[in-house]
Amino acid sequence: MQEEASKPALQIDCEKITVAELKDILVKEYNITISKQIMVAINEEYANKDDIIQTGDVVAMIPPVSGG
After folding, report:
1. pTM of the full predicted structure?
2. Which residues belong to the signal peptide in this entry (predicted)?
3. Cα 27 to Cα 9: distance, rounded to the nearest angstrom
4. What is the pLDDT of residues 28-38, one digit of tens each?
5. Distance, CA of 14 to CA of 33 (rounded, Å)
């Protein structure tokens, strides 16, 4: 996703949006492809699609991990 955005991080000015709404913004406004396997964390805690992102929160998109 960093490669698609051409930046290591994005700052999006939104107030009280859900994780699902953020994903929609990334797809529509930044043309970023988001896999269904991507996990989202808000302030270093895993989040669900209906969790609310507050002003000032740090959101991370975590790709699938494999290994043994």
Report:
1. 0.80
2. none
3. 15
4. 988 888 888 99
5. 20
